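To: structure desk
From: M.T.
Subject: fold request, one chain
Message: Could you run this one when you get a chance? Sequence is below, nothing fancy, just the single chain.
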Amino acid sequence: MQEFVPPADNTQDDTTTPRPSDTTPSADAPFGTRTDFSQLTTRVAAIRQELGKVIVGQHDLLEMLLTAILADGHVLLEGVPGVAKTLTAKLLARTLAVPFSRLQFTPDLMPSDVLGTSVFRPTTADFEFRPGPIFASVVLIDEINRAPAKTQSALFEVMEERHTTQDGTTYPMPEPFVVLATQNPVEQEGTYRLPEAQLDRFLFKLNVGYPTLEEEVAILQGHHAGFGGTPLEVVNQVLSAEDIAALRRQVRQQRVEPKLLEYIARIVGQTRAHKGLYLGASPRASLALLNGAKALAALRGRDFVTPDDVQFLAPAVLRHRILLTPEREMEGLTADEIIKQIVQQIEVPR
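Reply: Done. Structure tokens follow.
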């Protein structure tokens, strides 16, 4: 049921894999000072090349996953079975030289199966905490909505506060710590709707659709040629934990104009006033939109955030944080359509 890969010695030779520079300008640096994202661009291109050995297409999905990692956020992937949600997450984890674990959520899974448990040691007459598979830098939770609420609640503390408390003792998560969760649409058999408090802890919710005709033909051609069983070992590691930490420091120092901060606040605030929404987004959504926009801008080679970054990320940040009124649901409206309406109503800063 669970697959746990223990931490390994992933020491890299700095002469062959240079780490990103930590010498980036502060937020109040002179306007002429620019942040160098050449290291980030090179690493991202290498990751895309490694994933392209196995994955066909999914370019937008990969960009959003990399954005989430740079923004230090968790990702929820939703789609029907068979569209490579789990495979993409596993391959992305293999490009990172950090501990990885995978959990398969089922209706009989208990919180201790996720967090760990205390075991009595007769030799010392005391209890020893045995960490569960959640203690990894990249945690893949497969079919997260097949576990009941009791198991889901075990993730609340660890996803938000990056630590868990067992028997009065707090155990921190390793750095970095990212949860990549997959789920089937809630209409499918044997699934549970995730609590709103848990959904709010995901930076993005990404909808994984079917491949295009050309992409599916390429998949069939590769499988027919004998590449259908390509092992995961062909994907090489690109980033270490130290690399990720350095890149995140660069991302946090991105330039964001005050008018863009107001723009983000207006978009999120409008979700609380929209007549078609029963539940609007919380301030955590504003922070997610800001952090995601910083990471996306860096991923695209810019050291400043634009309104286009905010607009591009708004659906992924907000779709799982809002609830439509019953009347709008009966009309067939979707969360993405409401978000599009809201973005179009807010004046774009110049």
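Reply (cont.): The chain has two domains: 29-225, 254-350. Let me know if you need anything else for the meeting.
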